[in-house]
Amino acid sequence: MAFARSSVSAPIPTRSIPAPAATAGAGAPRRWIWAAAWPVTAVFMLSNAATPLYVLWQHSIGFSKGTLTVVFACYIAGLLASLLVSGIASDRLGRKVVLLPALALGLVACAVFATAESVAALIVARLLTGIAVGAVVSAGMAAVTDVAGPARRPLAALVASCAMVVGAGLGPLLAGVLAQTLPGPTVTVFALEAALLLTAVVTVLRMPLRRPQERGQGRWVRIPGVPAEGRVPLLLGIAAFAPGITATSFVLSLGPSLLAGLLHSSSRILAGAMAFVMFTAATGAQFAVQRAKRRQVLLASGAATVLAMAVLVAAVRSGSVVLLVLAAVLAGAGQGLGQLAGLSLLSAAVPTERLAEANAALNVGGYLPAGLLPVAAGYLSDAIGLTTGATVFAAVLAGLALLGGVLVTANRRRIVEPR
Fold this sequence. Notes:
One of its GO terms (molecular function) is transmembrane transporter activity. Helix content is 77%, strand content 1%.
């Protein structure tokens, strides 16, 4: 790949330049917006690559659905812990200082996944993956905004959001196909993922990013927040994003068990394809609403999540693969729309020097219920059956999505729309 020149006509260096947090006012060449999104995509491919392999590990190691959701939730625990520091560190020290260690942890996670022979190993791998993802959703997404420049912030929000869901979908699809068709599935899947992460390292090293001039003040480890003007946008973003990502987390953690237990399908390709279709819907939904008002996108996110939960109940009670896939598609749309709206609201309201921390705050609000509710559903399913457990989960999450819609409607006059 040929790399662009900076706005002052000097070759792009391979190290950060001591200057303001963002690139020059006009931003880097347009192709760098897409290149900067690649590390986000690569790390999110790792985040869900294990999805179609859980059934294999359950068979070889032996653990319950409740334990499976705990393994999944350890990823979210690592992610939330990472968000307590990664956004602040990124805003103070620069994006590369956070992204490069995150990619290194992703490489270590690949090695642990490839050799895992116990639940403890899976937990360690998921924790490391979560830490890497937490750094990327704060520093990586902010890096896309930085290279875009102030004039292209709406495009940057769209590209960063789509990079996340594209990676989240490609990871399990690729893993499912490789696991079904090649020997040594876990080694093969994570060896390929490690190679992709190495290309992301090269991209970050070449990225035209500048170091922040100000280091900021206050604690380095804290619950991420936003300036006063960003509080309402953050609250509304979480109201839509949290139910959507909780729905997709349920599909990722218990979807293979639903296919194997209720729908009598052990196909790893089908499990991976369902996750891919879910996140393809998330990507397509975001492109479809580029010109829509933010209020409409927020409300559409809640509506998609409510519909997803209704279809999920119908799927588990009828044993229908088609309905389960439709529920996944609607869940993906709900997450994608909520994520895009949240990032767009924060990008418009929060200054660059606080943007990574703001992105971290949005993800803390979203991933916290995404970690807790599927775990509760997993253990509930062990106790009362998968059908009843999924039904209770769906009812609770639909209620939260409806509550989010009420919150958006009540604050509709406070939503700043793009001109």
